[in-house]
Amino acid sequence: MNPLNHVAIIMDGNGRWGLKHKNSRNAGHKAGLITVEKVIKETIRNKIGFLTLYAFSTENWKRPKKEINFLFSLLESFLNNRLDELHKQNIKLKIIGNKNFSKKLNQLLNTAEKKTLKNKKLQINLALNYGSKFELLNAFKNLQKNKAKINEKNLRKYLQTADVPDPDLLIRTGNTKRLSNFLLWQLAYSEIFFEKKLWPEFNVKDYNKIIKKYKIIKRNFGKI
Ligand code: FPP
Fold this sequence. Notes:
By secondary structure, the protein is of the alpha/beta class.
């Protein structure tokens, strides 16, 4: 059975679900947050140490302002309402991505990271304003600036996931097969599952089915 330390998820399909069921993309994001909570619980139940969630990409700024504002207000209320509970559950929250939001949101994110820094049960990496190409370019710039030798070990030190093992498993919901500038370096040897269901429809049973399949894959890492 393969060990499972890190699950990464591209939570796709909120907009389509919202339009279909409530005639509103934002309603889909709201429903998507409920799935987030269920998946966090199930990740803990499965004793998985790391969960990385793609919540907002560097490309998502191209969306209508109304939708962007809604997404960030959803994030704000999630943190305001749930931070104490996450902390009580021994969950560490880490933001990956470029934190150049409003002063208020940046403060909230920093507070959440600081408060949960020493927690050990589950680390949630929330990818916000995240883009893998930006992360890699930044890492190379840092290597150059510090006159460090360009090799895997040194590059890794400058990734935003420096202290995090690479994902064992990537799940993308929403019936689309692409990586969308997510963890391009870190996913080099991950097992990838594309799920037809839209993110708000994705449930604990679906999640466990994927975990079960993942556990029995023969992972070669280039060997035979
Ligand atoms: C992609 O679906 C989803 C997003 C860009 C946002 C993800 C946000 C959530 C799951 C809820 C908020 C989460 C937190 C942690 C506050 P899409 O909108 O691209 O869907 P589409 O492909 O159907 O348009």
